[in-house]
Design a protein that fits this description.
The longest helix has 26 residues. This protein has 2 domains: about 90 residues, no CATH class; about 100 residues, GMP Synthetase, Chain A, domain 3. By secondary structure, it is of the alpha+beta class.
Amino acid sequence: MTTPVLRRVVRRETHSPRSVAFAVVVLIGIALALYVAVELILALAAQPALLVRPMAALESLAGLPSNAPVAAGVAGGLVAAALGLWLVILALAPGRLSKHEVDAGGRVAVVDNGVLASSLAQRVSDEIGIARDRVTVGVAHRSVDVTVRPGAGIPVDKAQVTSLADAEIASLKLARPVRTRVRIARPDDEEKAA
């Protein structure tokens, strides 16, 4: 049974904070607000603008053909909406670290994806009799990709590799299920002939 403290520790180990993204967005917003304020103050003080005066920008938009301001406004609105949607998703979606939560004999543990990939690659290598460097495993949050590159004349059964990978993943007792994809690469002699 996990305690609230342990759940919080596991969440901190498996999810990344959004504080850097938040700080960057806030700094960009502050910089834009300061720029607009400086341009407005310079315009009120009858001083030359840093980049462009706000009224000059509006007048240039008004000087365009009659349908151009509408198209520019719609395009600007779409860009602003897309940026806003991206920022909302960035703020609400949890950042994930490359780690998985596993059940370690009734206790909760956090294991790095690289460790999981290495363990799975070693098991597949040992069971099918292929050198360890001929098995490549990638572990993501929701999937595991296993690629086997057998040597010339070495048959490898995809179903056997899939069952081995599934058995190893089941033995790890991951807290969240992952989907396994297995790919058998062409043997070396076929690649050289191609």
